[in-house]
Design brief:
This protein has about 575 residues and is of the alpha+beta class. About 60% of the residues lie in helices and about 5% in strands. The chain is built from 29 helices and seven strands. Strands 1, 2, 3, 4, 5, 6 and 7 form a seven-stranded antiparallel beta sheet that branches. Helix 2 runs parallel beside helix 4 and helix 24 runs antiparallel to helix 25. The longest helix has 18 residues. The radius of gyration is 26 Å and the shape is globular.
Amino acid sequence: LLAGFRDFTAAERDLDAAFELMPDRPWLMVERSGVLLAQDRYEESLASAEQALSLAPNYRPAVQQVGRCLLLLDRRDQAIDHLRQATERLQCGGLWWQLAGLYRETLAYDEEADAIDRAEALWPLMDKSYHEALAARRSDIAYHRGDLQAAVDQSEAVKGRFFKVVRENMKAALQSDAPRPPRKLLSLPFVSQHHMTCAPATLSKLARYFDREADHLQITEEICYDGTPWHSERHWAEQHGYLVREFKVTPESAAACIERDLPFTLSTVEADNAHLQAVVGYDALRQTVLIRDPYNPNIGEMLGLGLQERYGPTGPRGMLIVPEDQAHRLDGLELPDVDEYQHYFRLHRALDAHDREAAHRIAQTLAERAPGHNLTHYTKLSLAAYDADPAGELEALDALLEAHPDNEPLKMRRYAVLQRLERRDEASELLETLVADPKSDDAFRERLIVLLQDDARQAPRIRALLRKLLRRRHSAALYHAYACTLWEEPDQRRLATDAYGFAATLADKNELYADSYFVAQQHAGHTDQTLARLGERVERLGHKSAQPVLTYYHALCRVNRQTDALDQLDFAIERRPTDPALDPL
């Protein structure tokens, strides 16, 4: 549980205590493997799981954990051999199901089908969701074997929009005498992302596709801090010898790139997060694009037109990178919105350099060339945000929402701007409208809780919302709101302090959460322990941002350690002399 909250110090403390009591228990070794895996320490995680197997060779949790670790280490063949040998000794449907997923990636459809049959035989009491999962896999296997009718028949048992659309596309192909539309899949290596490093992992796998070395953790050091800005991805590529084309992803543009054996990145933006993955193929019959995700070792599939429907305001944005010495591969490749994305990138580079005049010229040029384009509105939005002009941001957002009235990320940003404008009634009305829709993202319910917290009359409603959301959403903001609610009850302050701590570890780069946790711990008399944690944050994050240092500085001042606090400031200024957060100091 503690590892799930990313409080690894406490998790390892409890594991050490458990091992003192039972040093040779295999289950504890599997638990330690899981904690190490949550920290992205894959080799150590594998070693711990293998230690459990050395004590209990047929211990099923350890068998599956070793298979998982081998897969994340991109040792798929070893994982297959390991699990296949285990199935000869154990009667476990989960082993066969795990093995089926590995066979799928290697296009071994006969072996995958056999593994699925064996899993089903060992699951006599499986529920409806498992029946659907089996039918979905069998539908895909039949499709890849060329048996369209069987693929359609199996898909009838599967709910959800994806299979509904794919099923209709397959039926249409059955009724047509035309040649089967093509399917093409490129071989792109899997690089497993770490926490919040989807962009570096995706860039690394694209580099490896071109036989170029690019360690994803090194890329993380260069361009990441609590996520990765879009323009930083492109800047990294151009700085490392790649030609870059950003473009609007459509079924046609995706197919054009893949036909030239060129995978590309795809950005998907949700209400309160964004993700980067690689497009590595397309299927014209099913009308899908094939995805190499940095989190999932298996190839995924998305509806091509669904990308436009869900991610239209941001393109969705694709990014093609090609080594400079292979520039000929781009000859004659026409992609949509390349010029607009070029302007948008140049504007952000100008703002990064604090060249406000250049950014303004770029925004004017784009407005003249593409007055109604989404990216024209986004340039205005970015410029207004840089100028701390929320009214300008609102104007740009309203223009975008006029074209995309149902887009949740735009509504979320509009809410944030209304908050900064202190237009509370409008912000509240917007959230209330959104949460009334049961299909809306829970991020809006979370924001509503935060908005209502300064109104004591709303306490019963806040508690009811928290009870629901805490069961299904693992969010730092939610735990912080929960802690604030508990803090109002003196007999709940110990639990409140734990919740403040969970918020601080789940979002370890959020200064509000780190500071709140320190204040709560100070109230409980645990100042030295929490100061040590803030100091560790500075060691870990201070070279990339001055914000952790400022939080540490204020905490030291609260306990009257002004000399130490000033030393921290001097160190921060020496390390990051141009950081704008340090300008007032």
